[in-house]
Amino acid sequence: xxxxxxxxxxxxxxxxxxxxxxxxxxxxxxxxxxxxxxxxxxxxxxxxxxxxxxxxxxxxxxxxxxxxxxxxxxxxxxxxxxxxxxxxxxxxxxxxxxxxxxxxxxxxxxxxxxxxxxxxxxxxxxxxxxxxxxxxxxxxxxxxxxxxxxxxxxxxxxxxxxxxxxxxxxxxxxxxxxxxxxxxxxxxxxxxxxxxxxxxxxxxxxxxxxxxxxxxxxxxxxxxxxxxxxxxxxxxxxxxxxxxxxxxxxxxxxxxxxxxxxxxxxxxxxxxxxxxxxxxx
Length: 281
Ligand SMILES: Cc1cc2nc3c(=O)[nH]c(=O)nc-3n(C[C@H](O)[C@H](O)[C@H](O)COP(=O)(O)OP(=O)(O)OC[C@H]3O[C@@H](n4cnc5c(N)ncnc54)[C@H](O)[C@@H]3O)c2cc1C
Ligand code: FES
Hints:
There is one protein chain. By secondary structure, this protein is an alpha/beta fold. Helix 5 packs parallel to helix 6 (217-229). The protein is built from 7 helices and 15 strands. The strands form 3 sheets. Strands 10-9-8-7-11-12-15 form a 7-stranded mixed β-sheet, with helices on both faces. Strands 4-3-6-1-2-5 form a 6-stranded antiparallel β-sheet. It binds flavin-adenine dinucleotide and FE2/S2 (inorganic) cluster. FE2/S2 (inorganic) cluster (FES) binds at residues 245-248, 250-255, 261, 263.
């Protein structure tokens, strides 16, 4: 039996600054032992514990997609002790990854349905994983229309610029990129907060349309009423929570809301499920 507390050793292959203020970096890892990659079979929406010797472990959403083989990607915001240390590490350094952990977006239930993805700030990481998964030629025809609304504070704070530019050009999805504000005269996309951009551009809800919403609490607070107004039922609004965590496997009781362990029963929940829990999320 595999010890769930034992991290797989991984080597940092590449580190990329994502944002102009250098607060977010994307780390590309390869498994030191190739057989560990087979054991680390994940779905879009899951997370892992990044384990740095002498510093600690932190839960981070998996930004790479299951259809991308040979590496894992995580985009990490510099927040405190472990993330600061991680930002100082270099390609070639070895550390650990424990996982994959938690549940994932309901890919089976969403088959044949339209999908609206709404993301803000650095919570866009597992949404990147999801978009790459949906657009993969092996999966694209399993799903209906895809709309993405993605917002950041400014153009320089948008993640994955090369991919955003590619997705913009595709005719099998609709991208709606927005920034809170910009003085860039060449900016060609929306200016304004995510909720009004959703209101003006997102498809109407109904039994055939799901919304996946992931972002800062204030974005979620103002986006949910817009989705309700557009006709999305609480069963079809999917959210991913980022509660404080420690073990990540339902053992320590650090992350629970009511009887749900966010690390094990989540982090993905429908709004209908969250309505049944104490308002701690
Ligand atoms: C399921 C899940 C997925 C996540 N995905 C990502 C991701 O893709 N990219 C990313 O950058 N971060 C992500 N986070 C948040 C990340 O885990 C925290 O930022 C990280 O644990 C902070 O560790 P630290 O040691 O650097 O900070 P600490 O020294 O522990 O704390 C520094 C600051 O960060 C705050 N903080 C600590 N933990 C959290 C948390 N869970 N949520 C919000 N604030 C926190 C503290 O209150 C403090 O203000 C995710 C969290 C969860 C639970
Ligand atoms: S983090 Fe330990 S139970 Fe969820």
